[in-house]
Design goal:
mainly beta, seven-stranded antiparallel β-sheet, five-stranded mixed β-sheet, 1 helix, 26 strands, 32% strand
């Protein structure tokens, strides 16, 4: 007897009314945010009354979007870097601060600080050479020393009060007794206030926050001092708003009686928003296609947990509003969103379609999304979940026939010796969900 096996279903997908679309996770495009520069013109600090909130310098800004922001805080509009009256005409001291600039990059959590002088920082008598004292000053009896590389008794420091408690927390710069090679970013030892210039004011170094720091002293070609603070939002634990006060202070103890300079108006605040937002909605997937189609309503009252990806602990819990929307405003880090659907609804298949803004992100087995990384000031408003009253009921029916006849009942089909036998397997999806990769084998054959 010759035998021939005919398999009508092997490694195929059996649809139950809907087409299975495999979602290519590579088509999800991370949001790109372009930079923007904002220059803030500050009120005249020389006439501002710190006790009058309405008269304080207008440096209170909130960065609500993750963009590159620059705030320029000028010193007094008149030159306040004191030069002795007998000094030769035409000299501008390098100790006269022009402005301090802060540029915050939320996407990399980095603060760039620039201290500008009307002259060259480190050039006290302003002859353009920060390593040589002007002979004209010696001639009028104003003997001093212009130390190279901000060395000797010269100093340039910036202190910042990050938690706004009136006591500065960190200090960056070069203290008296060291030079530019010792530029560092440190904690500020207690008791030194807003004008520390000596070595004991510098506490523990902060290597995890030290970015690009100057390796050479300012020159006539590059007269300012620039450095960066990495991981700026994590220097001090606090709320999601980094509002800080600061003071820049520079001078020398052996510069022919040229006056030091420091920024005034310490009541001014610079606000940097580092909070991030995450959310979207829970929608009723009426056609159970895994996509939030036009007209499909939101589902109110769904519990949504925000979990810290590192500890798996619940950071915040909320419930969806009338339109199924939810929102978390939290510190930037890695999170997982967990949806707890009502008992009469089940989560639909995730990542259907080609639009991350309309698909469902929740794993039906766990209710959880993939890891969501939030940068300082950033947002992700695409983490949603589809729910449906549809109850999946998979089913399959396999019928085997011999030469076209059902052989379920004994004694079966009788064949003549030498007759060809054709076995046919008919596989039917009797359920209401798609079946994929279905294979049929016969242990008898």
């Amino acid at each position: 007897m010759k035998s021939k096996l005919m398999l009508l279903a092997a490694g195929v997908a059996l649809a139950a009314g809907a087409i299975v679309v495999q979602h290519d996770r590579g088509d999800q495009v991370e949001t790109q945010v372009l930079g923007r520069t904002l220059t803030d013109v500050v009120k005249d600090q020389s006439t501002a009354d710190p006790a009058d909130e309405n008269d304080r310098p207008n440096t209170q800004l909130v960065f609500a979007t993750p963009v590159r922001e620059t705030i320029v805080v000028p010193d007094m509009p008149v030159r306040d870097g004191a030069i002795p009256p007998q000094a030769p005409a035409g000299f501008t001291t390098g100790w006269d601060i022009e402005d301090v600039q802060f540029t915050y990059e939320p996407l990399i959590d980095e603060m760039t600080v620039v201290i500008n002088s009307h002259g060259v920082i480190g050039d006290p008598e302003g002859n353009g050479d920060p390593s040589a004292w002007a002979a004209e000053w010696d001639a009028v009896g104003l003997m001093g020393v212009d130390e190279p590389d901000l060395g000797g008794t010269e100093f340039v420091v910036l202190v910042m009060d990050l938690d706004q408690d009136g006591n500065p927390d960190i200090i960056a710069g070069v203290p008296q007794g060291l030079d530019i090679s010792s530029f560092s970013i440190n904690t500020l030892n207690p008791g030194f206030g807003f004008a520390p210039q000596i070595i004991p004011a510098f506490g523990a170094e902060l290597p995890e926050h030290t970015g690009v720091i100057p390796t050479s002293a300012p020159t006539a070609d590059s007269p300012d001092l620039t450095f960066t603070i990495r991981n700026f939002s994590t220097i001090i634990d606090g709320d999601d708003m980094l509002d800080f006060g600061f003071n820049a202070f520079m001078g020398s103890g052996s510069d022919g009686n040229v006056g030091e300079d420091n920024m005034t108006g310490l009541g001014s605040l610079l606000d940097v928003s580092v909070s991030a937002t995450l959310g979207d909605r829970v929608f009723l997937d009426e056609n159970n296609n895994g996509v939030s189609d036009a007209g499909e309503p939101g589902v109110a009252g769904v519990t949504v947990n925000l979990r810290d990806n590192t500890t798996d602990s619940i950071v915040e819990t909320t419930m969806t509003g009338a339109n199924g929307e939810y929102l978390f405003t939290v510190a930037p880090r890695d999170y997982v969103v967990e949806f707890i659907p009502p008992t009469n609804l089940s989560l639909v298949a995730p990542f259907q379609g080609n639009d991350p803004a309309t698909d469902s992100n929740a794993d039906p087995a766990t209710g959880r999304s993939d890891v969501v990384t939030l940068s300082p000031g950033g947002e992700d408003l695409t983490i949603d979940a589809g729910v449906s009253s549809f109850v999946p009921e998979p089913g399959i029916l396999i019928e085997k026939a011999t030469n076209g006849e059902d052989a379920d009942t004994a004694p079966g089909i009788e064949l003549v010796v030498g007759e060809e036998a054709t076995f046919t397997f008919v596989v039917t999806n009797t359920g209401n969900v798609d079946l994929t990769n279905v294979s049929v084998t016969d242990d008898i054959l």
